[in-house]
Amino acid sequence: MILQFFFRQMSLSQKVNYLQSKGVSLGSRIKNGRKLHIYMVRNLFVEVVYKNDDEHGSAEKVHILSGLKNLNSYLEKEFKTSF
After folding, report:
1. Which has the closest alpha carbon to 63: 16, 26, 25?
2. Is the separation of the CB atoms in 18 and 41 below 8 Å?
3. d(CA 28, CA 32)
4. pTM of the model
5. 21 near 11, Cβ under 8 Å?
6. CA-to-CA distance for 10 and 69, rounded, in angstroms?
7. What phi-psi label fits residue 33: left (phi over 0), alpha (psi between -120 and 50 degrees) or beta?
8. Cβ–Cβ < 8 Å for 13, 59
9. Which of 14, 16, 41, 77 has the CB geometry, 3.0–4.6 Å to 10, for a possible disulfide?
10. Residue 4: predicted pLDDT
11. What is residue 79's predicted lDDT score, i.e. its pLDDT?
């Protein structure tokens, strides 16, 4: 919970730097023609959309999910809406 509180207070670039240095990349997926990258830091899961889909560039937005249960629910919902 403390990590999530401090993470939400960071700027977008600080969040991405933190994820890339302290987090674990879980992979990527395609949604609406865009590549989304998912990172994990402890019990915090974050989906990142990069400008021009370039993970070495700057980020456009992040979507924060707290806990594995929330991540699973989110991915199941996304999977169901893709069909």
Report:
1. 16
2. yes
3. 13
4. 0.86
5. no
6. 24
7. left
8. yes
9. 14
10. 87
11. 82
Closest residue by Cα to residue 45 from 17, 4, 14 = 4
Q: What is the DSSP string of 28-51?
A: EEEETTEEEEEEEETTEEEEEEEG
Count of other CB atoms within 10 angstroms of residue 65:
20
State residue 23's pLDDT score.
95
What pLDDT does residue 2 have? 76
Q: Low-confidence residues of the chain, pLDDT below 50?
A: none
Token pair 């994820």 in the structure block, residue: 19
- Residue 58: predicted pLDDT: 92
